[in-house]
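Could you join me in thinking about how sequence relates to backbone shape in a protein? Would you write everything just below, so we can both look at the same thing?
***
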Amino acid sequence: MKGDGLVRDLETRFVTTIVDVDVADESLSILKPRNSDDLISEADYVRDERLPYWADVWPSSLILAKRLADEAGHGRSLLELGCGLGIVSITALRAGFRVVSSDYYEDALHFTRANAWRNLRREPAVRMIDWRALPGDLGTYDVIVAADVLYEMTYAQLVADALAAALSPSGTAIIADPGRIAVDQFVDACQARGLTRIERDTRPFVEGAIRQKITLFSIQRAG
């Protein structure tokens, strides 16, 4: 299912709302489930502690999207790890990247495609990816991005593994993090895998009562 048909299907299957988010000089209209708590599945949590974090708009995704809005994609390949509602992937598409949006939730991929269609009238490629079992045909990418994915200690090693496996020799990963529990271990894990060129750019996020400092980690292989 594609395009408007996908949007209608999601609006039928979920209680949805639309939020407008500003990215640089552009505004995105984002279709999302009205309440992510309604999506919690006890079976999913028992199986692998999955929670539907994908269904919310996170400050780190907005900061990362604003960072990508300044990039010239020029047809370069980009992989997003944990695409959620698609804000970062849509911005990357608009900037000219060839985008593959990935997530562990199939519905996140549907919402990403739907939101890209609603805003751009085109969609990224999408792929289900379990970081604990990376597919052998994942390929390599010029840019890999992720927003707020280090909220569990185990993810430090898993995200670093994904970058080591899928980042092209001259590629750059950009990881946006608000100070989650696994961030220091993630940096150590990257360095242990030869991803030793790491720069930090910390930016403030202020919206209503929310006050965060988001650090953008730009990561490359040892030169």
Notes: The domain at 3-220 is CATH 3.40.50.150 (Rossmann fold). The chain has one domain: 3-220.
